[in-house]
Amino acid sequence: MADKKLVESITSMGEDFAQWYTDVVKKAELIDYTSVKGCMVLKPAGYAIWENIQSTLDAMFKETGVQNVYLPMFIPESLLQKEKDHVEGFAPEVAWVTHGGLEPLQERMCVRPTSETLFCDFYKNDIQSYRDLPKVYNQWCSVVRWEKETRPFLRSREFLWQEGHTAHATAQQAEERTIQMLNVYAKFCEEVLAMPVIKGRKTDKEKFAGAEATYTIEALMHDGKALQSGTSHNFGDGFAKAFGIQYTDKDNTLKYVHQTSWGMTTRLIGAIIMVHGDDSGLVLPPRIAPTQVIVIPIQQKKEGVLDKANELKDELSKKYRVKIDDSDKTPGWKFSEAEMRGIPVRVEIGPKDIEAGKCVICRRDTREKIEVALDELDAKIGEVLDLMQKEMLERARAHREEHTYVATNFEEFEKIFTEKAGFVKAMWCGEEECENTIKEKLSVTSRCMPFEQEELADKCVCCGKPAKKMVYWGKAY
Amino acid sequence: MADKKLVESITSMGEDFAQWYTDVVKKAELIDYTSVKGCMVLKPAGYAIWENIQSTLDAMFKETGVQNVYLPMFIPESLLQKEKDHVEGFAPEVAWVTHGGLEPLQERMCVRPTSETLFCDFYKNDIQSYRDLPKVYNQWCSVVRWEKETRPFLRSREFLWQEGHTAHATAQQAEERTIQMLNVYAKFCEEVLAMPVIKGRKTDKEKFAGAEATYTIEALMHDGKALQSGTSHNFGDGFAKAFGIQYTDKDNTLKYVHQTSWGMTTRLIGAIIMVHGDDSGLVLPPRIAPTQVIVIPIQQKKEGVLDKANELKDELSKKYRVKIDDSDKTPGWKFSEAEMRGIPVRVEIGPKDIEAGKCVICRRDTREKIEVALDELDAKIGEVLDLMQKEMLERARAHREEHTYVATNFEEFEKIFTEKAGFVKAMWCGEEECENTIKEKLSVTSRCMPFEQEELADKCVCCGKPAKKMVYWGKAY
């Protein structure tokens, strides 16, 4: 049995979801707070998840032809101001550098909140001819947005992310790349993070500052709130015109490039916590877990136990990411810690097990315990990890389906959001006025116009005028 | 033969080494300049080298028990000021953030020039007991130092690096870790970058701001100038006392921790260029080269040539990092480009080769051409890459030996630095005054007191007083 003390130190989800979340990020040792308000330390357990996200996603990017680069972290004010919508969106929330060493700067610079303007400034010189296209660049870095309210992973003043920035010869190629990267994001979330997502397009009100179209993947958290988990933007030639990015085409005429950008952030770690976690702490999908298997020796002072446990660890390490806990804590405490940290499988091995040539394995998500013969352990763990990955996705999908509702008129719409939490599918006329009304009255926003449209009704759920699109609505992080 | 045009576009090393360097970083497409003075774009070819440095070094770190973390990029001014020597060293060259969004900050913050103070602030809470020690953390990030004069890779206002920060129970453990990481750096430089280094200790004048001891690896560039290539610092308990980082030891008493830090930067890419490059451009050591082999089809429009070239590429890709250049440029131009980019081996394959069941491979460093039977190509390339890696190190070592001189009195010392460029080994009394005199008269600095000491003379090369240490002196980047 797991020791109660550690588990009792976190609030239960049902009691206070927000407090549960805060407790888990601290007790699972993912982050620490700092003297810099709104900025956090990513501790080893938290950063290791990001390293796995990074390496998996980076390999998926490179398969589609992405090349990594690194651009400066500073943006001169004049550069930020070149694209009107973009600067309006970001200027209120950037950090300004005004002094270098002991002297004031001639022109102040912001710390990048995102790097469209820098990439444009770079592409302006780097792109001359159709032969230079497409440019499919990405960078892994940190960005800064001076938020008033912050929460670990979900909203912090500095966060880690990747930002892809591409330039193409035609509008069609830009649109294709925008959708291609959204699909990469969705595939990554579903197959690696075991987190189902709704793919769709943002309304004009919710799109990125400077974009022609923003596409998004939206996930549902355990408390019924939505989390925007990745976005992909098609800029058309708006930035190209503002920055003068032209190429000589095959027909010898000058044309503007068409651009995209797309990003995912450490916010994904928040998503993993809120989609899979439980009252004992974190539950990590096997494919992203820094440690997949933890070996816990029972009565480890008895002769042969530690040797056997280490032998299992070495053997399993050939295929899986394995650790052993041979500290002097009690087994119960070790179980609790392993559960808090979300390690998918624990292996218990004691003197009696060794005698019988077996051990016990325990799945983190279901807590199912299975006796396994030692010579079948390797294969069995592979099976259990695969099954766990699959069932975690299925459970998350079932949870989302159970918390996705349909409203065909405003009364229904209001009733659902008063009584329940989740996604609500409803028809919309396409007017921003209705989005504003809905936000004001129900405190919910349009999450996306999903690619899979349904005709739930012919009238807008808000104003009753003819409907144009089905929209997912929800309260969002 | 390589096409002359591209090669002629760079200045020769002998004519103007500084211009040659600048030409290579641009023509090999490693970097681009930006609108942000002193900051550069790392283009795909440059960033890919950094990615390889990062992944190789990171694996070496992890073998020694290092864990990665991420700390904020901002340091509040009051935090930077806690350690007196440290703030004096860095305050004159930091960038200051004074505004967040539209409002002035209550306390200004600098963008990290290095993160000792942040790690101390973090460790202060994270370390309570001897059980929490050692902490062996590292982060990969960018830092900012507001330099007046900048050069790509060697000195820029923002650069990428890793910074390790550790905390230990005893002074001895801290010293051991400091030396251990210096050894990792030296091994990495020699075995992976094919760059021999001198390991030693910095004099007090040259040590890191706030350190008790700074250890360094020093390499000699092709022009005879020295490059500090990595440093490892032992802080003793100086920072711990300034920040109050104490732990309860086994004997139940409160003790201060002992700390270290160590870093390597994108400057290593500058070192690779200046140690191995030649008048045709970059020469990359096989182990760090993003592309190790480039297949160049000859008369590629003839039937079967492209197919065969692609077949070779696919086959070789199982073991090596391989690209094919099937663009419509001439073979000569492709050769020049591959040379400029420093790709270790090129494979030429044309109709006659295919008929004869062979191809030609050419080594980048020696330009040696070898005919190889196609069924032996795979093994032969492995051999050539290994040999090239080995010989590049040997050549660099021979170059360093040829440019390392001995001076036993000031006249010799002055004569060498007037007529030649390189390292000079000479005895030193241990007084900073002599270092100052030498710097003033000869414009050279003490690079390090090497671990391998020799007794060249019994008097200081400068003042003639009894000598205490042998020192490597040189002009440095």
Task: Walk me through what this model shows.
In chain A, a hairpin with a 6-residue loop joins strand 1 (31-33) and strand 2. In chain A, helix 3 crosses helix 7 (171-191). Chain A has three domains: 11-276, Bira Bifunctional Protein, Domain 2 (BirA Bifunctional Protein, domain 2, 2-Layer Sandwich); 293-384, Rossmann fold; 404-474, C-terminal domain of ProRS (Translation Initiation Factor IF3). In chain A, 36% of the residues lie in helices and 27% in strands. With 477 residues, chain A is an alpha+beta fold. Strand 5 of chain A pairs antiparallel with strand 5 of chain B, so a sheet runs across the interface.
Task: Give the SSE layout.
2 copies of one chain form a homodimer.
Chain A lengths: L3 H5 L8 H11 L3 E3 L6 E3 L1 H20 L3 E2 L5 E3 H4 L3 H7 L4 E6 L2 E9 L4 H11 L8 E10 L13 E11 L2 H21 L6 E4 L11 E8 L5 E11 L1 H6 L2 E3 L5 E3 L1 E8 L1 H10 L16 E5 L7 H12 L5 E3 L6 H10 L4 E5 L1 H6 L1 E6 L5 E5 L3 H26 L1 E3 L3 H10 L3 E6 L3 H11 L2 E6 L18 E6 L3
Parallel strand pairs in A: 3-7, 15-16, 15-17, 20-21
Antiparallel strand pairs in A: 1-2, 4-6, 5-6, 7-8, 8-14, 9-10, 9-22, 10-11, 11-14, 12-13, 17-18, 18-19, 21-23, 22-23
Helix pairs in contact in A: 3-7
